[in-house]
Amino acid sequence: MKILMVLTSHDKLGNTGRQTGFWLEELAAPYYAFKDAGAEITLASPKGGNPPLDPKSNEPDFQTEQTHRFEADAEATAHLASTVRLDSVSQADYDAVFYPGGHGPLWDLAEDKHSVALIEAFLAANKHVALVCHAPGVLRHVKTPEGKPLVEGRKVTGFTNSEEEAVGLTQIVPFLVEDELIAKGGIYSKGADWSSYVVSDGLLITGQNPTSSAATAAQLIKQLGA
Questions:
Q1: What is the pTM of this model?
Q2: Number of other residues whose CB lies within 10 A of the CB of residue 210
Q3: Which of 152, 88, 144 is nearest to 116 (CA)?
Q4: pLDDT above 80: residue 226
Q5: Which of 5, 75, 111, 198 registers the highest number of CB atoms within 10 A of its CB?
Q6: Cβ proximity of 57 and 19 under 8 Å
Q7: Residue 64: how many CB atoms within 10 A of its CB?
Q8: pLDDT(220) > 70
């Protein structure tokens, strides 16, 4: 089983002067879910190299057993420091793709033509695509072979408007994930704020927030039959 994980390369939180990037828990929990299931993992990002970590995700309140495990794992941290460039990967080499969130993807991956084409290629090849938290926003320009929005008529979830409001970034992000999925015709649903909530619709699996990252990965593994 070979799984591609796609991380953001974007490190600026709008015009706040603060840093953003990927959310550590949303990388660490799925990374070990896949690794412990025997998967071979490749990490990619638009720019390649060491992707930016959202510093907030490494604060004590957001650290977990899996984030500690990742940071103490020399192989994992070396893997992270040398992500491959997104434009160099092909769906033909993988069984599934997983997108961790963090706010960064709303700026780069959501607009990245290589990401859009990659997701479309995975689905065309009858392979699973899983995204968690802000990462479902990366689907905003992904289309079906008929040219319709991918999420149109599909069951999806993602970071809620109320969760974005709670972190005070409603006016900072380029778009709200919940609003965007609904605007594109998605059948959006959600659980309670900050609770684990995962939606599966065929090959497409989405998780609501950081708490949902392990469950999103577990659902992908289950659907892969691993």
A1: 0.97
A2: 25
A3: 144
A4: no
A5: 5
A6: no
A7: 16
A8: yes
pLDDT at 138: 98
Q: Phi/psi at 152 (nearest 5 deg)? A: -60, 120
Residue type, 219: Q
Q: What is the pLDDT of residues 111-159, one digit of tens each?
A: 999 999 999 999 999 999 999 999 999 999 999 999 999 999 999 999 9
Which DSSP symbol is given to 197?
-
198 backbone dihedrals φ, ψ, rounded to 5°: -130, 140
Q: Which two tokens stand for residue 97?
A: 């793709």
Enter the DSSP assignment of 70: H
Q: How far is CA 109 from CA 69, 77, 86, 146, 189, in A?
A: 27, 22, 10, 22, 23
Taking alpha carbons only, the member of 210, 212, 7 closest to residue 104 is: 7
Instruction: Summarize pLDDT for 1-36 with one digit per residue, the tens.
Output: 999 999 999 999 999 999 999 999 999 999 999 999
Radius of gyration, CA atoms only, the chain: 16
Contact 143, 119 (CB under 8 A): no
Beta bridge partners of 19: 12
**Residue 22 — φ and ψ, nearest 5°?**
-90, 160
The structure tokens listed for 9 are 């390369």
